[in-house]
Amino acid sequence: MLLACLGFAILLLLCFYGLPLGFASLAVGVVGFAYTRDWNWHGAVTMMSQQIMEFGANYGLSVIPLFILMGVFIHRANISEDLYRAAYALVGRRPGGLAQATVLACAGFAAVSGSSLATAATMTKVAMPYMRRYRYDDSLSAGVIAAGGTLGIMIPPSVQLVIYGLVAEQDIGKLFIAGILPGLLLTLLFMGAVKFTVLRRPSAGPAGEGLPRAERLQAYAKVWPVLALFLIVLGGIYLGVFTPTEASGIGATGAAVFAVLRGYVRNVRDLYEVLLDACKTTGGLFMVIFGAQVFANFINLSGLPYDLVDLVKAMDLSPIGVVIAVCFICIILGMIFEAVGLLLLIVPVFLPTLIGLDIDLIWFGIVMVLVVEMGLITPPIGMNVFVVRTVATDLDLWAIFRGVTPFVAADFVALALLLLFPVIAVGLL
Q: Collapsing DSSP states into helix, strand and coil, what is residue 262?
């Protein structure tokens, strides 16, 4: 266990000094493996190549670049403004309505883009000017955007759920279905957090202007194609019409057609830019995946998973106690690591323990994704907070952290409900 803890400490140190997580975990994994084999560098390099080749050849991984491509096409089609307009038409005229509209728009955009960081960056550009126009408090405005961006992790199709499914060897289609109700629950809780904030401080979220019926209908009409695409992808998986991999291809193709028809992909150069963006994102993600696999192999060799199993047995923790302990660790580490990297580092370590305790791994996957999501908006390193601050440079960083506080509380409420009522996650299966 000491060797594994030392490996984690060195990994954290390298990340703090700015080395990307993928390269840091790869380096620590190779060196750690070599050390356990009396500095057998040939064996370490061979292990690294085998891990990369075996995981890279996994057919299930093809889901990731296709869903990423789908998200890039949707982003290219500038659907974010249409989603925000439709959400505003629905709830914008109420006190705090613009902030609630931002939650709904973030949920919709995050669902089709699959990226929390992209959602936060895009919605900052779209929603922030509207909320400032109606004299919304900057803290509430920035907080709701940063928190709303995290909905992309939970609402399927989610890259994080795909990663968890591959690592834990669980059905990705079932994970997508299991994420629907928790995603809707979290959206409602975030809207409730906005309502709570406005009730405490009415000046933080004044009511917006109501739109005429014709404009509301026009706003709804602009978003139905992308919502239809979303329903086709999830509905096809739910009904067993096609597999998640086939669904990702259908989603990417549908998004491409949508972007072309809207005039945002007009020539070969536009298509090249979309494909290049998707390739860059996919390459960065796969580097994290490969590095984490090598690091996980070193951790397994160190004996940490088996030591944890023995520790749990000695402490006589209940299955729910083990899950709560894992959640606590993930919340702490989520302040430092990004979501995919954290999943890849933590899940392999605790998986033998969870299997031994007969814990439902589908339900646990939803819980894991939720707590990983929380790390994106919690200090000191809430990635979504820094994304919002990067786009809106005049915002005070601590004001944003104050703004996300009610939404962090909403996350804890959602976590408690998932722990107490697992049926929320597995009820549709």
A: coil
pTM: 0.77
Q: Amino acid identity, residue 294? A: V
CA dihedral 106, 108, 113, 114 (to 10 degrees): 80
Residue with tokens 């299955």: 319
Q: In this structure, are residues 73 and 114 in contact, taking their beta carbons and an 8 Å threshold?
A: no
The arithmetic mean of pLDDT across residues 336-354, rounded, is 76
Q: How many CB atoms lie within 10 A of CB 90?
A: 18
State the average pLDDT over residues 333-349.
Answer: 74
Alpha carbons 38 and 27: distance in angstroms, whole number: 17
What mean pLDDT comes out for the span 203-228? 77
The DSSP 8-state label assigned to residue 134 in this structure reads T
If we measure between CA atoms, which residue out of 264, 209, 299 comes closest to residue 82?
Answer: 264
Count of domains forming the chain: 1
Concatenated DSSP letters of 359-397: --HHHHHHHHHHHHHHTTSSSS--HHHHHHHHHSTTS-H
The CA distance from 1 to 25, in Å, is 18
**For 357, how many CA atoms within 13 A lie in the half-sphere containing its CB?**
22
CA dist 271 and 264 (Å) reads: 10
Instruction: Look up residue 267 and give its DSSP letter.
Output: S
| Residue at 351 is within a domain | yes
Task: Report the 10 Å Cβ neighbour count for 56.
Answer: 12
Give the tens place of pLDDT for each residue, 103-117: 888 887 776 666 676
Residue 1 within a domain: no
- Per cent of the chain over pLDDT 70 is 92
Tokens of 130: 């509207």
| Separation of alpha carbons 88 and 99, rounded Å | 9
Per the domain annotation, does 10 fall within a domain? Answer: no
Residue 268: enclosing H or E segment and its boundaries?
Answer: helix 268-302
Domain extent, residue 373, equals 20-426
Q: Is residue 262 part of a domain?
A: yes
Given a cut of 80, is residue 27 above it in pLDDT? yes
Q: Residues for the chain: how many in total?
A: 429
